[in-house]
Automatic annotation (TrEMBL):
Protein's name according to its UniProt entry: Uncharacterized protein
Organism per entry: Phialocephala subalpina
One example GO MF annotation: oxidoreductase activity
Keyword Oxidoreductase: yes
Coiled coil: none
Length: 332
């Protein structure tokens, strides 16, 4: 376990060589993403940011506060609805038209389906559109810019940080129903397992591709964080829910932990140097780089050997990748 004191000591070592120069945040207007963005800007280092979100008019005072917190930052707001994959494609293409490389893609947008299954106008289940489909599509479109970054920064590896649910992977997800369209497959717990498992499988596939070997892929379960996720009309905590509005860490501490994921050499050996009592992390392939890091709520790297082994027997990674490509084809 990496303690909060160790995290703070590591974050105190951060300088320009350990942080992104250009970063994209999807889901930073609230909760964990907002806390991560705030923590990153608190270092007052030069950075160019793209923040994707909705309701710019209602975010102006917050954006002004962000700018005041770090006058060296260039903050770009991109208005868009990321439950819609056509919008995700449009936003990513806009970033690509302005940038030759990016150093960080931070994904945390999402909500929990407490009131049943609902579909977007494109036919995807809404919570899975945020938790999985839009995220993997963003990764697909922005990977070329991350690859370009990896060739220009010898002391920092570009990173994709996906805040979701490692540790909730399941070997028995329905591989023939990735979007849980069958009512028998859909439930709150089913969405949590499906999103977490699909994320790990897809990111494992991408991280193993030779062209991506210098990119740090992190799938992180943040633990219990006091966010707004339970205050949007739901009054109870469903069984098995992985976050809590009443217990757990405050967003500020979550932001410090996210900043550690963004900057620490624990992941790939590049970044803010490790403290003497903190070991380098291992990927799902038991290597120190070149594969996916599964990071749990203790900031420990886990391998999930048993569940991934069972999924391998089902040829799950290849099946998910093929079906995912088919479903996302109109937006690639």
């Amino acid at each position: 376990m990496v303690s909060i004191s160790q995290i703070r000591a590591s974050n105190a070592r951060i300088d320009e060589t350990h942080t992104p120069r250009v970063a994209v945040f999807v889901g930073a207007t609230a909760g964990i993403g907002r806390a991560a963005l705030t923590a990153l800007l608190s270092k007052r280092l030069p950075i160019k940011l793209y923040i994707i979100g909705r309701d710019e008019a209602n975010r102006r005072s917050w954006l002004e506060e962000l700018q005041q917190s770090n006058p060296k930052a260039e903050i770009n707001w991109l208005e868009g609805q990321v439950t819609l994959l056509a919008e995700v494609k449009r936003l990513c293409l806009k970033i690509k038209s302005h940038e030759e490389s990016i150093d960080l893609l931070f994904l945390s947008a999402g909500f929990l389906p407490f009131d049943g299954r609902h579909e977007t106008s494109e036919g995807f289940e809404t919570s899975l559109a945020l938790l999985y489909w839009s995220r993997i599509l963003s990764i697909h479109h922005l990977l070329p810019l991350l690859i370009m970054s990896s060739s220009t920064r010898p002391k920092y590896s570009p990173r994709i940080i996906n805040i979701l649910g490692t540790g909730f992977e399941s070997a028995d997800i329905p591989l023939d129903d990735l979007d849980l369209r069958n009512p028998q497959n859909f439930s709150f717990q089913g969405v949590v397992k499906q999103a977490g498992t699909l994320t790990t499988l897809a990111m494992t596939h991408l991280a193993a591709e030779p062209a991506n070997r210098n990119i740090v892929f992190i799938h992180n379960h943040p633990g219990e964080v006091k966010t707004e996720i339970l205050r949007n009309g739901w009054g109870v905590k469903p069984a098995g829910m992985p976050v809590s509005a009443k217990t757990g860490m405050n967003p500020e501490m979550s932001g410090e932990r996210s900043l550690y994921l963004i900057s620490s050499a624990q992941f790939s050996g590049k970044g803010a140097s490790l403290l003497k009592d903190v070991a380098g992390g291992l990927t799902v392939s038991k290597t120190d780089s070149g594969a996916l890091f599964l990071v749990d709520e203790k900031i420990e790297c886990i391998q999930q050997d048993e569940v991934l082994g069972k999924l391998e027997l089902r040829n799950a990674k290849e099946t998910v990748w093929r079906k995912m490509q088919e479903m996302l084809a109109p937006y690639l």
